[in-house]
Design brief:
The complex is a heterodimer of chains A (114) and B (114). With 114 residues, chain A is mainly beta. In chain A, strands 2, 4, 5, 6, 9, 10 and 11 form a seven-stranded mixed beta sheet that branches. A four-stranded antiparallel beta sheet of chain A has the order 1-3-8-7, with no helix packed on it. Chain A is globular, with a radius of gyration of 13 Å. With 114 residues, chain B is an all-beta fold. Chain B has no helices and eleven strands. In chain B, strands 2, 4, 5, 9, 10 and 11 form a six-stranded mixed beta sheet that branches. A five-stranded antiparallel beta sheet of chain B has the order 1-3-8-7-6, with no helix packed on it. Chain B is globular, with a radius of gyration of 14 Å. The model of chain B has no long low-confidence stretch (mean pLDDT 92). The chains are: A mainly beta (114), B mainly beta (114). Chains A and B meet through β5, β9 and β10 of A and β5, β9 and β10 of B.
């Protein structure tokens, strides 16, 4: 079965650079969630989109922005990168802002800022 | 914001032993979820709970949604080496505009010695 696809799997950037992370949800899923997981930490909710509109916003820095496109894929744009942005970034998708059972996570993008 | 307290933080057990971990919250959740995460991968859903008092099993795993809607536990029976990983509880909020967003516990690191 198709899963949530994230790219790239690994990314190394220097401080103050920008990064773009991509997420391709499971076909027919209309909701995308982004989470950040620091080393040894639990995932923290960043932002979500439902039907291409921002649905909910968590602890996402102003330097980050995201959007969901007409084909339902989503991109997380990160500017002025800081060392503390180094983390695993997970995308998850569901159908209709699902109740957790339809919440499938991708394998993540590991961002390292040097 | 919402906070989940998950315990224990880590467990070292012998193969064949039973395991129990739990989560408590200061607020009510309408859905409790248990995930397992392996290094470098996204969380994988193990069990989803939707009703207060609900007890659900998935193979050797059993989880319960506390009747106060503020807690949940996960039991793993007859542990095997492949149970090794980090187990997270996650709660989905009971309304407002946060539909779909998950709040995670701090995780329980499980080590199983053969």
């Amino acid at each position: 079965a198709a899963g949530v696809i994230q790219s790239p799997r690994h990314l190394i950037k220097e401080k103050r650079e920008t990064a773009t992370l991509k997420c391709y949800p499971i076909p027919r899923h209309d909701t995308v969630y982004w989470y950040q997981q620091g080393p040894g930490q639990d995932p923290q909710f960043l932002i979500s989109f439902y039907e291409k509109m921002q649905s909910d916003k968590g602890s996402i820095p102003d330097r980050f922005s995201a959007q969901q496109f007409s084909d339902y894929h989503s991109e997380l744009n990160m500017s002025s990168l800081e060392l503390g942005d180094s983390a695993l970034y997970f995308c998850a998708s569901s159908f209709g802002r699902g109740r957790g059972n339809g919440y499938t996570f991708g394998s993540g993008t590991r961002l390292t800022v040097v | 914001g919402q906070q989940l307290n998950q315990s224990p933080q880590s467990m070292f057990i012998q193969e064949g032993e039973d395991v129990s971990m739990n989560c408590t919250s200061s607020s009510i959740f309408n859905t409790w979820l248990w995930y397992k995460q392996e290094p470098g991968e996204g969380p994988v859903l193990l069990i989803a709970l939707y009703k207060a008092g609900e007890l659900t099993s998935n193979g050797r795993l059993t989880a319960q949604f506390g009747i106060t809607r503020k807690d949940s536990f996960l039991n793993i029976s007859a542990s095997i080496p492949s149970d090794v990983g980090i187990y997270f509880c996650a709660g989905q909020e009971a309304g407002g505009t946060s539909y779909g967003k998950l709040t995670f516990g701090q995780g329980t690191i499980l080590t199983v010695h053969p």
